[in-house]
């Protein structure tokens, strides 16, 4: 019977039979700690370390507890009990390492190390095609392989037609810098679209390979993008735009215009600030962004905000305080 090394366990000893007729089960024996003797690998017998006594189960069989000290030595373990009135009983066990025991009895797996594999046991023919892929290797291993490739000396890799020969020729001047540059720029992007690579970035930037300055804006550009802003906001020459002033003050004041019913922002509304409730002295003006916001720079104090947009009715002015 197998036992796991350094692990507490309860074993069954018996049957204990009458020492007179050799067949009657002894069911009332008192088997104490001192009565249970252990010999580890044919060593001197000693009482078990577990302090518990043995308990009768049935038909002369007794359960006996062992602790991790009793099972701490790998190899053969004999348990012997010689109790007055009964024939001697003994039982042999084999103490196994935890991994080996769990591999045989439970769901663990045996640890088979490469140092224990005979020379030439693993050959190219023994490895299945595609058995070693990037998915089968840790990222750190791939990085180490890549580093080793780039650090490898060219001298041993100059076979005619090889990449090593081409690189060696380039280093030696057989290929001009101009021809190498031409080859790089003339290379198609399609084979170089690995995520995160320069090829992928260039391909993304190129889009459909059309001139970006010839693209209609805002077209299909999403709200808030550069194309959308250029198409929707910059609808006149910059030099011709008048009346848009962030204000003369030093305090930043952000004003947000929203729908009173839905709280949705109102973009592209004309907004101006005055220092009087009559609206005659305008100190800042502009248009709300996609979030319904506009930023003015004003002096601290009370200001009056005026709003205007086609299709909307606002109660003007809105009295605000600049901190």
What does this structure look like?
The chain has 323 residues and is an alpha+beta fold. Among the domains are: 2-102, Immunoglobulin-like (Sandwich); 208-240, no CATH class; 242-322, Immunoglobulin-like. The chain is built from 6 helices and 14 strands. The protein has helices spanning 98-105, 139-151, 163-172, 177-186, 198-206, 226-233; strands at residues 2-4, 9-13, 36-40, 46-47, 55-58, 61-66, 75-81, 89-96, 251-256, 270-274, 282-287, 293-298, 301-308, 318-322. The strands form 4 sheets. The protein has a 5-stranded mixed beta sheet with strand order 1-8-7-3-4. A hairpin with a 2-residue loop joins strand 5 (55-58) and strand 6 (61-66). The protein is elongated.
How are the elements arranged and paired?
Blueprint: E1 2-4, E2 9-13, E3 36-40, E4 46-47, E5 55-58, E6 61-66, E7 75-81, E8 89-96, H1 98-105, H2 139-151, H3 163-172, H4 177-186, H5 198-206, H6 226-233, E9 251-256, E10 270-274, E11 282-287, E12 293-298, E13 301-308, E14 318-322
Parallel strand pairs: 1-8
Antiparallel strand pairs: 2-6, 3-4, 3-7, 5-6, 7-8, 9-12, 10-11, 10-13, 13-14
Number of helices: 6
> Which structural class do the helices and strands define?
alpha+beta
At CATH level 2, the architecture of one domain is Sandwich
- The share of residues in helices is 10-25%
Average residue-wise pLDDT:
86
Total strands: the figure is: 14
> How far apart lie the N and C ends?
86 Å
Give me the CATH fold name of one domain. Answer: Immunoglobulin-like
Shape: elongated
């Amino acid at each position: 019977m197998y036992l796991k090394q350094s692990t507490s366990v309860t074993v069954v000893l018996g049957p204990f039979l009458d020492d007179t007729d050799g067949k009657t089960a002894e069911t009332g024996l008192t088997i104490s700690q001192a009565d249970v003797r252990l010999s580890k690998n044919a060593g001197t017998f000693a009482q078990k370390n577990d302090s518990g006594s043995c308990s009768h189960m049935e038909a002369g069989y007794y359960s006996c507890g062992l602790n991790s000290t009793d099972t701490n030595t790998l190899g053969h373990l004999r348990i012997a009990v010689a109790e007055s009135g009964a024939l001697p009983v003994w039982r042999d066990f084999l103490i196994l390492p935890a991994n080996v025991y769990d591999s045989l009895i439970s769901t663990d797996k045996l640890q088979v190390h490469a140092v224990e594999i005979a020379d030439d046991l693993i050959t190219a023919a023994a490895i299945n095609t595609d058995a070693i892929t990037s998915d089968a290797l840790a990222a750190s291993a791939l990085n180490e392989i890549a580093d080793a490739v780039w650090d490898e000396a060219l001298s041993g890799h100059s076979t005619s037609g090889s990449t090593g020969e081409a690189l060696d020729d380039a280093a030696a001047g057989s290929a001009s810098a101009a021809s190498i540059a031409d080859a790089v720029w003339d290379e198609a992007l399609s084979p170089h679209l690995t995520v995160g690579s320069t090829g992928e970035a260039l391909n993304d930037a190129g889009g459909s390979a059309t001139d970006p300055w010839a693209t209609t804006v805002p077209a299909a550009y999403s709200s808030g993008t550069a194309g959308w802003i250029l198409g929707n906001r910059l609808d006149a020459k910059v030099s011709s735009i008048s009346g848009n002033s962030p204000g003369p003050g030093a305090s930043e004041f952000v004003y947000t215009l929203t729908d009173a019913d839905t709280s949705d922002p109102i973009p592209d509304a004309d907004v101006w600030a005055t220092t009087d409730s009559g609206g005659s002295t305008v100190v800042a003006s502009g248009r709300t962004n996609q979030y319904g916001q506009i930023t003015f720079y004003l002096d601290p104090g009370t200001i009056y905000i005026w709003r205007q947009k086609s299709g909307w009715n606002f109660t003007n002015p809105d009295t605000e305080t600049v901190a």
